[in-house]
Structure formats: C-alpha cells, structure tokens
Amino acid sequence: MSSKRYTEEFKIQAVKHITESGHSVSEVGRRLGVTTKSLYSWLERYGDSREAYQQESASQAEIKRLQKELKRVTQERDILKEAAAYFAGESKKGTRS
C-alpha cells in the first residue's frame, strides 16, 4: 500500500484550518481525506512554531541560493585560470619565434 504525498503548501493550509479556523482535527481530516495521524504530525511541524519553520525555510532557501552562486563563481574562476594559463603559454611561444 503506497501512501499519498502532499505538498508542504497543502500541509500548511490544512494546519491553518485547524489552528486559525478552529475546526477539529477529525473534521479537517474527513473533509480533506487525510488521516488524523498525518494532521497531528503536520501540527507539530507547522503549527505553533510556524514562524520558526518559515524562518528556517527562508534560511534554507538562502543557503541553496548561495551554494548555487558559489558553484557558478567557482566555475568562472576555473575557466579564467585555464584561459590565463593558455594565454601565458601562447605568449611564451610568441616570444621564442
């Protein structure tokens, strides 16, 4: 039996139905077709500490962005090193002739 996967956005919205709208976990579970066990685990993750989770998500997004930028800059540096070495070798060849 395979379990259904839900997006984080869906999970957060489900938790909002419970925390902000005041609906019961079992009621939200029935309406959305989600088990109460899943809803309780989502409440732990996204519930009261939602702001902390959002800050953590923002930090993770920033880390990913910086890692991507570092990779790009490293590749550019390596290309420039190779080009400098190539042209240094070419200029030595040109002065010998």
Polypeptide structure, described:
α1 (8-19) packs across α3. It is rod-shaped and about 85 Å long. Helix content is 80%, strand content 0%. It has helices spanning 8-19, 25-32, 36-46, 50-96. With 97 residues, the protein is mainly alpha-helical. It has four helices and no strands. It folds into two domains: 1-48, Arc Repressor Mutant, subunit A; 59-97.
CATH architecture classification of the largest domain:
Orthogonal Bundle
Q: Please state the average pLDDT score.
A: 86
Q: What share of residues is helical?
A: over 70%
Poorly predicted runs are none
As for the CATH topology of the largest domain, it is Arc Repressor Mutant, subunit A
What portion of the residues fall into strands of 2 or more residues? under 5%
What's the helix-strand series? HHHH
Number of strands: 0
Number of domains: 2
Query: How is the biggest beta sheet arranged?
Result: none
Give the termini separation.
76 Å
The 3D shape can be described as: rod-shaped
Rg over CA atoms, rounded to whole Å, is 27 Å
> Structural class, from helix and strand content?
mainly alpha
- What CATH first level of the largest domain would be assigned? Mainly Alpha
What's the tally of helices? Answer: 4
